[in-house]
Amino acid sequence: MNKYENAEGAKIREQFAPKLEDGESIQWCGASAEKLTMRERGMSGKHLVFPVFCLSLCIIAVVVLLVSASSIGIIITALLFAAVVLLFNFSVIVLHRVLFGAQSLYVVTNKRLYILTKKGKIDVALELTALSSIYATPGRNNTGTVSMRNSSVGKYSNMVYVNLMGIEYPTKVCDIITEAVDNAIILEKKKAQGNRY
Predict the structure, then answer these.
(1) What backbone phi and psi angles, to 5 degrees, belong to 149?
(2) pTM score, two decimals?
(3) Given this model, what pLDDT does residue 38 score?
(4) Distance between first and last Cα of the chain
């Protein structure tokens, strides 16, 4: 067990160990806190700009619709209103997931980063060699977020950024992940060089 894992990390380690592939070993396990502040989920006031902008456009569209007398103005306003409502709903869904999303479990092995559902099912499995620009954002109560860039091709290519939110000792966990990624890249290069000869 890693010294930066809590009791929940030890449980995750025990449950996840049978799912490991040959040659794969766990470097760190942890879970996001169940209730997180905006900052602990990597959010700030700037993330509220888009939903507020959409809401403002909705209000403007309604006002223009009420004031406008021409049929073209009413049609354009109605289309604008529909588009803005869709954008607003989308932003609310995204914000809800970020602010109030279900607890996630995290496992870092010497090969991959896994994000699990609360029930322990693998939700995301990223090769460490696809991760870069890893940094920690400390929050309050010794928790915070570890963020990284993902360059995976295929199933998880839409996840440009990956955030491990609401975890304890974010700076130390960031160091553990960085070291695991560096080691995975070195191993991959050695394998590539070995295959040349």
Answers:
(1) -95, 140
(2) 0.66
(3) 54
(4) 38
Average pLDDT over residues 146-164: 88
Give pairs for 12-18: CB < 8 Å, separation 24+: 12/105, 12/106, 12/107, 12/116, 12/120, 13/107, 15/120, 16/107, 16/114, 16/116, 16/120
**Average confidence score pLDDT of the chain:** 79
pLDDT of residue 148: 94
Q: Residue with structure tokens 């960031």?
A: 174
Nearest to 168 by CA among 31, 2, 1, 22: 31
Query: Dihedral, CA atoms, 16, 18, 22, 23, nearest 10 degrees?
Result: 50
pLDDT at 5: 73
Res 43: pLDDT: 55
Contact by Cβ (8 Å): 33, 40: yes
Q: CA nearest 108: which of 41, 166, 174, 11?
A: 174
Task: Note the CATH architecture for domain 7-34+103-196.
Answer: Roll (2.30)
- Whether 75 has a pLDDT exceeding 80, the answer reads no
